[in-house]
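Supplementary notes for students who missed Thursday's class. We covered one full example, reproduced here. Read the sequence, then the structure, then the short commentary at the end.
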Amino acid sequence: MPQSQLPKKTIAAIDIGTNSAHMVIAEIDHVGEMRILDNDKVNLRLGKAIQADGNLSDDGIQRTVEALAHMQEIIRPFQATVRAVATHATREAKNHRRLLREVERTSGIKIEIIDGIEEARLVFLGMRYGLALNNIPCLGVDVGGGSTEIIVAKDDEIKFVSSIKLGAVTLTDRFFKTSYSDLAFEALKDHVHARLAPLQQEMSGLSYDRTLASSGTAKAIAFLHAKLFGNASMSDPNGYVLPREDLFKIGSLFASLMTPQKIREATGLDHSRAEIILAGTAILEELTRLLDVKEWVVTSFGLREGLVADTFYRATDAPAGELPDIQWHSVLQFARRLGLNQVHAAKVKLLALRLYHQLAPLCLKALSNDSADADIKTLKASSYLREAGKFISNPHYHRHSQYLISNSRLPGFTESERQLTGLIARFQRKGLPSADHPDCIDLSSNDLKRLSFLAGILRLAAALDRTRQSRVDDIEVDASGHVVKLTLVHSSDRPPDVELLKSRLEQSSLEKSWDLELSFHTRSANSKGSV
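Structure (token representation):
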């Protein structure tokens, strides 16, 4: 669709963090202009709700369920597309799937768990929409409740990204659990230094012209700086410049006050922020020293706004000139690192997509078509990366492929998307997915059906290029009779005898996966009949 014709879309983005849940409802159009329509915030303190056994408490789950149900009621009049992500605290909780099920059952909201790398990418995407950053190499930092995300990027080119389990809430709970004291604060600062010090070496060769800070900690410091140093109040700190030395002065002020009560009385910060601001500021100060930052440009745009933009471009399939397909770029980069045969991978991908478009109306007719775009993107990735496991070992490479895809850093992919991509690569050979398989026990019946269908597509597409000589130019599906007829189209001088044999060997598995009766044939591109 041409850029000028891209529609406006209303999107609600929800970020379930370690300290709080935030929601923003925004309208974004074809030129990337984002207009905030409404927002909401609920302090959940999920970090504190994780018990000694690693599980979220019943109370923590209930608070989250209620908060998202209320957010859904706020969203409803806007008729917005809803996308919710959960970060560090939910990732760490052993029983996070219970939380996800309860939220979906109560409010209908499906939560995606994203890793720290994807969180950093989305944060920077949000920063780009909050500030004029075209063609400017930037360092972006987001000090969260449970982790700190660091990224160096120029537009869509990511040069460095890291997520460190170091957050304002988790540090506060660890070092100030019993009391606030100078001794505890010194121990906290030593710990922060030890965790962040390796960044000096890791980032030594990187350069950037702008240093950006988002998150509640950065915004709170910006508001306070404007009040103390400029005797002014702000409604929005986006683009506010915080000089290095002034950050250290504010950090010293917090350290001298020490307790949340004194900080709150002296600065006017609300209780939840005053409780964790000392730890959050310590992280930002240490990053300032280690990376020799002269000033921070604070932005009020971050994860939620990045999620709005990412959702918009996924839904509208905007051209690459508008925003590059970050998912596909990740797949290509990963394939190159693993040394995959990209000619073969591209052929399998094209055949898989050709099969999908012809077979989906037959096999997925009982299911919603809402996830068709997601299915196609996932199928593209799994088709291209199906042999990733050969990087480890050729025997059982499909299992290794699942592991590598599911556990690798693939910007643009959520955890659930990586898991599904890995499962498709896993079941494209050998055994079939089933409800009692250990890797499938958390899948719904609809998800299992989609997995079986997509894995079957990839199983056949791989067989159709078994000789890696592109002997099959196309495959045609004829469902006019009782038996679905699959015809391999080829050039007259390159009959796909091996591909036909391998396809027929997979016939039984495909019939079980698709619940169809199949027959295989071949046809020269220059002839009408088939054999």
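Commentary. Confidence is low (pLDDT under 50) at residues 1-6, 319-324. Residues 5 and 379 are 27 Å apart (CA to CA). If anything here is unclear, bring it to office hours.
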